Amino acid sequence: MARRPLPRILSSGSASITRGKELARTAADGATDVLHPLFTVSRGLRKLAAAGRARWSATPKERRGPTLFLAAACVLGVALMPYGPLLALVSLMGAAAWKGRERPAPGPGPDELGKERLRALYEALVPHFSLPGDPNPLFAHGGEWARAFGDCAFDADGRPTRLRISYPAYFPDGDPAERARIERLLHAKSGRGREYRFDWDEEGNQLLMTVPGALPAAVVAQRFVTVPGETVLGFTDADAVRRTVPVRDGEATRDAPAVVWRTGPRSTEPHLLVVGQPGGGVSTLLRSIALQALQHDGEVLVLEGFGTGEYACLAGRRGVLGVECGPVGALDALEWAAHETERRLAAAYEARQAGQPAPAETRRPLWVLLDRPTVLADLAAAEGRTGPQDLLQVPLRHGRAACVTVVVAEQFDTVDALGDVVRAHTRARVTLGSAPADQLAAVLGAPPRTTPPPEVPPGRGYARLGTGEVVRVQVPATPDPYDETAPEAHRRAVLDLLPDRPVHEAALPADTPVPHPADTAALPPAGHAPVLPADGATVLPAGGAAVPN
Length: 549
Prior knowledge:
This is FtsK domain-containing protein. It comes from Streptomyces thermolilacinus SPC6. Keywords: Membrane, Transmembrane, Transmembrane helix. The chain is of the alpha/beta class. The protein folds into three domains: 34-55 and 78-103, no CATH class; 112-210, Hypothetical Protein, Haloacid Dehalogenase-like Hydrolase, Chain: A, domain 2, CATH 3.30.1240; 230-496, Rossmann fold (3-Layer(aba) Sandwich). It has helices at 8-11, 13-58, 61-80, 84-99, 112-125, 176-190, 282-295, 327-353, 360-363, 373-383, 388-391, 393-398, 420-425, 437-444, 488-497, 503-506, and strands spanning 149-154, 160-166, 197-201, 206-210, 230-235, 244-249, 252-262, 272-276, 299-304, 320-324, 366-371, 404-411, 428-432, 460-465, 471-474. Helix 2 (13-58) packs across helix 4 and helix 5 packs antiparallel against helix 6 (176-190). It is globular, with a radius of gyration of 33 Å. The N and C termini lie far apart (120 Å). 32% of the residues are buried.
């Protein structure tokens, strides 16, 4: 059978369509060239309007009236000038054209040294981000690293400070072990001696590696702008928290992102566990917490198990129930804290049964700061007495309802000796000093998003409140004011925060060194005898030292 020819309209239709597309494309390009100035001016006007709205929103309400009056006066003056409206229109169009100009083209990218580093990173990641059966592998030996890497930046030495990595969807990014393996590899290949932060985008299959800046270590102890029940543990990165606190940094005042710990009857993390290395700043954090508690009229009981006198500056101060270093006095003070918690609960229950508010004495915060309970446990076991962790069960379990807050401090090498009760009720955690990543994850309950820094200044570590994210933290400098090796300005800042300063400290001129407690006899006595009422409960004398050794 002979084939019939196609109709003319079908045989020549493709050529007509092609010519039509070319004409339309040419017309669109010509219109774009002609209307390009109009597009630039309209884009600039849009940017100027957005900037004006932002400026008006940032203007305080009390200044909006004068600002509006001044703007109206300027508009009236321009309208009355000869050729004023025309000059104003020309100026506006010029400003809009300048504002709406195209953005400058991006840089040429990494140099040869940066390309070599990225190529080495790519080859090192191939065994982790590839499978033999992948038909179109993103990572392959000898492949193009530009397909997987983007948004990169380098420092002066050519090491990457920011790098976005796209990885295949079949990589098990939900496995912490696999993620840790990639992070260790990137840390080693990108250059040691720095701290790296890793942000995993599991939905987009991307990993962002950045080098965070150093946390400010110059913030000293001061009166922070907080309400009762809020304690500033330290300061962190700006994008880690939503709360900023005004602080004095030298002669200037600035807003710093703070890690704020909330305590009280409605707190979800009523107690705190601090774990650190020797010299990591654990005593500094406890002194900072004690000063903030005294600022809000709280009662503080300080107990330490190694007897180095790190908290001697608090003895005899208003609101400090006692500072005890010996095992006998510390255990007696813990027994009193347990009885006081039960007494507060009973008094609050009786008041609620009578339809009355709880007594004021039961609503005043009581802080129990216990440093190194494992040392006290060993001494108590040698003497056949109840250990400190057993005595802490009542304050830990019922402290939130009785306004009793417990802060337990321990070191990394003995943290395993802490019991289940202490671990279960101290849901706010802080680690200070350098430690392996697995050890930090065991204490905090989650691994930190940054690699451990090579050099850790005192008071530097990580914090996690409840089930929140692990954030970096720098504790404000709160040294022992009787430590002659500490900076003079830091020591005097702590002395200014102590309530009821002794005369020999308050009368010192600004340029006089702070005396050591051994050089003066004006300090309060080492301790007072406890008062034993008829019911057998041990009551510590308010304003004096704790039970003597």
